[in-house]
Structure formats: structure tokens, C-alpha cells
């Protein structure tokens, strides 16, 4: 009998204005949450790509040889490049070596020199891309000394100086994104908290009646949890619908810049699956937050 009375006197947790406000606010939060979450995962993927592609390789450059008239001696330069190539192929820990052709160098220089450049007419060093074995240590000092014995025009770049700067920048960017992510979650929790507390104050009379007829705090809290869970779920879907196109557009814009560094900032299949599950996260997050907010508030009222 008590259950029947309770069901007939259930609290109206949300009215039209409060419902619309919470749907709009939660949708905005979830939009920001999904976009920032995608950013965090993209930065993580980008850093992994840097470590995989850059740390596992070094670049050897051979400065073009100039004759007495300060013109490039192509034949002598090519001869020195071949010597360096043979030397690097025999270095312990080197997996493969290949000389970048003019088209590859031109592609690398395009962002700085423009698309219409004649590489052959410029004193641009010849570049050798050296891939390393991940499980072997490389003695860079020994390699440098060996190259200098072959030719003073050869030098080695293991990328570590500027890579460390990039990793530091990416780490700072990732920390900032995580801070924004936590801030969004926290503000969303406060919104649910104050909305639920306001509804409790408005329905204090109905709550007292429910207590008189035998309703427990757990039952009242579950009514709120059910309502806010529904709001969280549908708000998550709305936020996701707007966030996914934004992520795709931002991703395409980043790739279109032509920067090889940004090309690794992409989402994996696992990342997209995680993003698609955000409405469920929103549902449980809103439900749990509302439940404990109401339970603690009712305990203080008693």
C-alpha cells in the first residue's frame, strides 16, 4: 500500500524551464568534453609518432663541395656522399640508410622556401636518412669521429635537442588540455549539484509528505538520479553530434597545413570508440552525481 501511495505522489524532479536549461548546459559541457578528450588523445598519438619516427632515426648531412670559383662541385659532392653512405651502412646498430633525392629535399624545404625552387642550384646539404635498430645502443661520438675522418663536410643530427623541446611543448599542451577536461567535468558536477539542491528546496513539502508515508531517502535520491541520468545521456548524444564534425574539421585543417609533425595527431579506432561511449559516461556521471547530492542533502535536512 505504501508503494502505491509513493508512486502516486512521486516528485516532479524537472519542470519545463529547468529541464531545458539543464539539457542546453549539459550539451555544451559534453561538446567541450568530447572535443578536449579528442585533443588529449590526438596529442598522445602525436607524441608516440614522434618518438617512433624520430627517436629511431638520425640524419647525416653532407655539405656540398665548392670549387675555386665558389660553385658547387657536384661530382666531388656525390663522391663524398657515397663514402658516407658506405660508412653508415657498416655502423653497428644501423638498420638501413638511404640518400634523399632532390624531390624529397624539395618537399621538405617547400614550407620555408616555397614550391618553386631549384634544389640543384642551391647549396643545400645532401641528406641521408638513417634508420636505427631499437634494441641496440648507438655511439654517436664514434660515428661523428668516423664521419670527420671521411670528410669535414659530413655531420650528424640525432634530433634529440629539438625533439626534447617538442616533447616539452606537447607535454605542456597536454597538461593544459587535461586541466580543461577536469574543469569541464567539475563545473558539470556543480551544475547538477545546484540544480538538484534547488529542486529539493522547491519540493521540500512533497518530500516531507513522502517521508511521512514511508518513503526512504534512497527512493527519493533514485528518482533524481533517474531524471538526471536521462538528461545526461541525451545531452551527451547532442554534444557528441556537434563535437564529431568539429573534430573531423579540425583534423583535416591540421593535416592540410602540410606539417609532418601534425600528421601523427590522429585518433585511432580505439579513440573513436571511446568518444562514441561518452553519452554513457555522461549518463552514469550525471546519475551518480545527482544520487549522492540528494542523499547527502536529505541527510542534512533530517
Keywords:
single chain; 302 residues; alpha+beta; Alpha-Beta Plaits; 2 domains; four-stranded antiparallel β-sheet; 69% helix; 8% strand; elongated
**Strand order of the biggest β-sheet:** 2-3-1-4
What value does the average pLDDT take? Answer: 81
Class from secondary-structure proportions: alpha+beta
How many runs of DSSP E, i.e. beta strands? 4
Low-confidence stretches: 1-9
Tally of DSSP helical segments: 10
The succession of helices and strands, N to C, reads HHEHEHEHEHHHHH
Main sheet properties: 4 strands, antiparallel
| End-to-end distance | 24 Å
What Rg is obtained from the alpha carbons, in whole angstroms? Answer: 31 Å
Tally of separate domains = 2
The portion of residues assigned to helices is: 55-70%
How much of the polypeptide forms β-strand, as a percent range? 5-15%
Global outline? elongated
Question: In summary, what is this structure?
Answer:
This protein is α+β, with helices and mostly antiparallel strands and 302 residues long. It has two domains: 2-52 and 163-301, no CATH class; 56-158, Multidrug efflux transporter AcrB pore domain (Alpha-Beta Plaits, 2-Layer Sandwich), CATH 3.30.70. Helix content is 69%, strand content 8%.
